[in-house]
Amino acid sequence: MELVNGSMWPTIREAMMCETHKYVAVVNNFADTEPIVQKLQLLGALNVSDLHRVHKENYEERLRRRGDKFPPQKEPDSETKLVSQSAIAERLKSRAQEELQSLFPPDYDAAGQFIDNKEKQNEDENYENEVPKIKKLLEPSQMRPIEEDLKSIKVDENRIVKPSSGLTSGALQEFIPATKLKGLDDYILESDPYQHYKEGSEFQVRVEPESTIEFPEHLKIFAFEEGNNSRFPSPRRSLNGNFDYYLMDGASILPVLALGLKPGDTMLDMCAAPGGKSLVALQTLYPQILVCNDSKLSRLHHLEDVMNEYLGNLDHWERRLFLTNKDARAIDDENVYTKILVDVPCTTDRLNLHTEENNLFKPSRIKERLLLPELQTEILLQALKIMPVGGTVVYSTCSLSPIQNDGVVQMALKKCWEETQSTMIVKDLYEALAPLRCIYRFGNDFGLKYGNIVVPTPKHNWGPLYFCKIVRVN
């Protein structure tokens, strides 16, 4: 991780290793809001909407004093990009060398032999012809059918137990050579996800700056200031029976803000459980229709419980709120949803650091973890396909992995162009997020091409969370 996150990694690691991290309190507009707001203010919490407004006004005033008509655009840092690309290349090389070494005895330095050969060939006139051979050796090994080897090998038939010999105890102990390896089709190399990242790296994506993020008028979110890790009390029921506020990681509100919800929008949350982001969207009072989908029925039941506790009787929401249980890749309602949130399943880096049960990094779930980028790409691709012209998709994860973040966005946009010829634009939110830097630490020096990432630090201990805004133009 230090190769990817650079000098910030020790700080990020320190924050993520803390078992408790910061939350924000989202005021429930379907309860008695005034006493709730007063209660949170007495705790010393600050209204994030007020912070955003004040810092936005100050930021715009500074621009006017400098005489800038528009906010300065983020200049691509060539040095940062080179460092990021070289880090990924170094990671790929290291992974390939590890797999190569696994084919040799422990005391044999396979990678070192090839490096020594490379240094000797620097003085050789035919060095250029040898470079492809060295690169080929460092590439992940290619699987081939076992039948090819069976045609060329010579089997010692003296060790084969023939039916005519009878099933004696001695015959049962004879060695019988294997003719087929079970499970070989399901085997996945650790380097496969990195190959997935490299596949779409040459595809060009149009990126346009977006200067502002509007904070919805009715959305009331409270947080403690920088360095204050105080905890909010557990939510309580108000006079009408609904809970007074919802506690969630402070970074999780940003994908909803990035959607840019407007009154009358039709919104789809493709992977909605446990329901926090969907609830924030409803607290804006903007969506005319909200569809909350999740592929797992148990998680959908949990989401339903959350909605019941904060919205009251869901019968009153029968024409505005819909809960569906489908594979997100199978949702085919084209040109219906103006705003789509794609909060995909991911490695949830912080959670897996502090839980043993169902941990995605345990040996029994290696295959599932390695296939995550492929699943994430398919879900995002489906969202892009069903989005109408002028619609918005926001993709988000709770991971620091560049493959699950920018890598998935790149691959999904590439496949969408190849399959539909649709033109998508990625919105650069660097300047739009400027008023929120008072409470968030953004990883602007991570060499990201498309999205933004909130990184945890001891003073701003929420996240990690990556999000990317995509708009369809034709």
Spell out the blueprint of helices and strands.
Elements: H1 2-5, H2 9-16, E1 23-27, H3 33-42, E2 46-47, H4 48-66, H5 78-101, H6 110-121, H7 127-138, H8 146-152, H9 169-172, H10 192-199, E3 206-209, E4 221-223, E5 245-249, H11 254-259, E6 266-269, H12 276-283, E7 289-293, H13 297-311, E8 321-324, E9 339-343, H14 349-353, H15 366-370, H16 372-386, E10 392-397, H17 403-420, E11 424-428, E12 452-454, E13 465-472
Parallel strand pairs: 3-11, 6-7, 6-9, 7-8, 9-10
Antiparallel strand pairs: 1-4, 1-5, 2-4, 10-13, 11-13, 12-13
Task: Write a brief structural summary.
The protein has helices spanning 2-5, 9-16, 33-42, 48-66, 78-101, 110-121, 127-138, 146-152, 169-172, 192-199, 254-259, 276-283, 297-311, 349-353, 366-370, 372-386, 403-420; strands at residues 23-27, 46-47, 206-209, 221-223, 245-249, 266-269, 289-293, 321-324, 339-343, 392-397, 424-428, 452-454, 465-472. It is of the alpha/beta class and 474 residues long. The chain starts with a helix and ends with a strand.
Question: Could you walk me through the main structural features you see in this protein, from its secondary elements to its overall organization?
Answer:
- This protein is 38% helix and 12% strand.
- The protein has helices spanning 2-5, 9-16, 33-42, 48-66, 78-101, 110-121, 127-138, 146-152, 169-172, 192-199, 254-259, 276-283, 297-311, 349-353, 366-370, 372-386, 403-420; strands at residues 23-27, 46-47, 206-209, 221-223, 245-249, 266-269, 289-293, 321-324, 339-343, 392-397, 424-428, 452-454, 465-472.
- Strands 3, 6, 7, 8, 9, 10, 11, 12 and 13 form a nine-stranded mixed sheet that branches.
- The longest helix is centred in the N-terminal third of the chain and has 24 residues, at 78-101.
- The radius of gyration is 27 Å and the shape is globular.
